[in-house]
Amino acid sequence: MTLKIAIDADSATAPYEQLRSQISAQARSGRLPVGSKLPTVRGLAQELGLAANTIAKAYRALEADGVIETRGRNGTFVAAAGDAAARQAAKAAAAYATEAQRLGLSQADARSAVEDALRARYGVG
Predict the structure, then answer these.
(1) pTM for this model (two decimals)
(2) CATH code at 15-79
(3) Do the beta carbons of residue 14 and residue 55 sit within 8 Å?
């Protein structure tokens, strides 16, 4: 397994976010299989020419998303992200449903708001 990351220094997107999104996409696509060991923070920082804190911030975000897991001194590995992502999505959906009900929205209005948000985010209709 070779981690392929390209950081665009001219991008408006912060380097840690570029790193986070690329690792996440590779893990979710299977290009980085579950259980794959990732480079150390320092090693990847040196390889990419970034600060170690930038790599650490991306790794923390990925771990919070359930994409990777740190196993102490053994290193950082790709986790079974699909399960974690599904759990987080269900939790977010439940929180949204609670808030929509508290605001007095009908089910149709709540669904419509979600559909509008998805169209805006994904750009499809």
Answers:
(1) 0.67
(2) 1.10.10.10
(3) no
